[in-house]
Amino acid sequence: MPYQVAAFYQFTALPDFRELREPLRAICAGLELKGSVLLAHEGINGTLAGGGGAIAALVEELRHGALFAGRLDDPELKFSSASAMPFQRLKIRLKKEIVTLGDTTADPTRQVGIYVDPADWNDLIAAPDMLVIDTRNAFEVALGTFSGAIDPGIKSFGQFKEFAARHLEPAKHRKVAMFCTGGIRCEKASAYLKARGFAEVYHLKGGILKYLEGVPAAQSRWRGECFVFDDRIALGHGLRERPTQSQSDE
User: Fold this and answer.
1) Has domain 3-94 been given CATH number 3.10.310.30?
2) Does pTM surpass 0.85?
3) Rhodanese domain spans which residues (predicted)?
4) How many other C-beta atoms can be found within 10 angstroms of the C-beta atom of residue 169?
5) Which one is catalytic: 28, 180, 186, 226?
6) Structure confidence by residue, pLDDT tens digits, 70-109
7) Catalytic: 186?
């Protein structure tokens, strides 16, 4: 049976995030899950893999369990499958940020851009006055991106601030749409731009993964593959795995 993979995040106040680490590790270990979870004051960000029943139990715990006490009632969730376990071990880490930008004004719990459902994304980015930005690093962009999107040429998300300072102006760029793998980086980037006076800022809800999951290939403006942070390396439309050498030889 294939493994189920759940990618999830939510920006929410977790002042007790340090105390959550070991109980969460115990829950995941008990469910025989592998992968990684980041905990910080601003929320949670993780990708875990295991049996379908175990993943369902994890999601129930996140949403309704006593550990998070209702603070993760609406996490952004994406599900995919893997023919083999895509992680080597379980890691629960404490961080300053669940996605590192290094600017306290970028707080999606206070203000954020406009969420755009995958079904509406094609029309949005086709608008002639829309600046479309891929917020991922250059390696990820090289594997695949949306037609017409700008590659900021960054090595890590923390460099997005420098890109914005050099190339983006609120008075000139009135409409900006951004995207990333699962939605977390572009959500934080939209909060960053809103804090700096950009008028209309949009981001793809659920990221590329949600788009590839729901938008048929025949209607897609995506080109290439989407890099994922596990042993599968990259996914295509329908969140299909890149074929292994043995599969491609069949």
Assistant:
1) no
2) yes
3) 126-220
4) 12
5) 180
6) 999 899 999 999 999 999 999 999 999 999 999 999 999 9
7) no
